[in-house]
C-alpha cells in the first residue's frame, strides 16, 4: 500500500475477527514503530503486548470502574458515563492484541515520541490489513502501580499509548476531516 493511501484510509477499527495476529507480524510492527523520530533520538518507548483474552476482559472492566470513579474530576468524559456503566462494553472491542507503549519519564519529549511510534505502528498495521484503535480509556488503569506490577513495567514508567490490533470484521465507521486550519502563512 502506498504511504499516502495508508494515511488516507486508516480508520479506527472497533470490530475484530477472533483470528490472532502471528507473533512474527506483531514483532515486525514493533520494529517499524521504533523508526519514529524522538527528541534527541532518546527512543524512550518500551512495549507490552497482551494477547491474554481473560486479562483483556478483566482490564476492560477495571478500566471502566477506574474511569467511573473519577468522572467528576474529568467533566469532558461525563458524556461517556452511561457507556462506561454498560457491563457489556468491552473497551478493547474484542481485539486479539493490545500493545501498550510505555516510557520512562526521563526524557522531556516522551509523550511526543511514543505518540509518533504509535502512529507508525497503526499505519504499518493498516498496510498489512490489520486494524487498530488507540484506546485512551485504558490509559488511567494502565498507569496504576497495580497494573504496572502485573505487567512487569517499572513503576517510574508511564503509559502513553494503549493501541489495540486485529483483523477488521467489517468496514470501519466513516469519519470526516475538517480541512487544515491555517492560522498564518507568512512569506
Ligand atoms: C489519544 C486518543 C485516544 C483515543 N481513545 C479512544 C478510546 O478510548 N476508544 C475509542 O473507541 N477510540 C479512541 N480513539 C480513537 C478516536 O476516536 C479516533 O481516532 C477519531 O474518532 C478519528 O477516527 P479515525 O481514527 O477513524 O480517523 C482515541 C484516539 C486518540 C488519538
Roughly how many Å is the radius of gyration?
17 Å
Contiguous uncertain segments of 5+ residues: none
* Succession of helices and strands: HHEHHEHEHHE
Physical arrangement of strands within the biggest beta sheet: 1-2-4-3
- Give the name of the CATH architecture: 3-Layer(aba) Sandwich
The averaged pLDDT comes out at 97
C-alpha end-to-end distance: 36 Å
Name given to the CATH homologous superfamily: NADH Oxidase
What is the number of domains?
Answer: 1
What's the helix count?
7
The percent range for helix content is: 25-40%
The set of bound ligands, ions and cofactors reads: flavin mononucleotide
The major beta sheet can be summarized as: 4 strands, antiparallel
- The count of strands amounts to 4
Question: How does the helix and strand content classify structurally?
Answer: alpha+beta
CATH class: Alpha Beta
Looking at the structure, what is the overall shape? Answer: globular
CATH topology-level name: NADH Oxidase
Could you explain how this protein is built, in words?
The chain is of the alpha+beta class and 187 residues long. It has one domain: NADH Oxidase (3-Layer(aba) Sandwich), CATH 3.40.109. It is 36% helix and 15% strand. The chain contains 7 helices and 4 strands; from the N terminus they run ααβααβαβααβ. The protein has a 4-stranded antiparallel sheet with strand order 1-2-4-3. α2 (23-33) packs across α5 (110-127). The longest helix has 18 residues, at 110-127. It is globular. It starts with a helix and ends in a 21-residue tail after the last strand. The mean pLDDT is 97. Flavin mononucleotide binds next to β3.
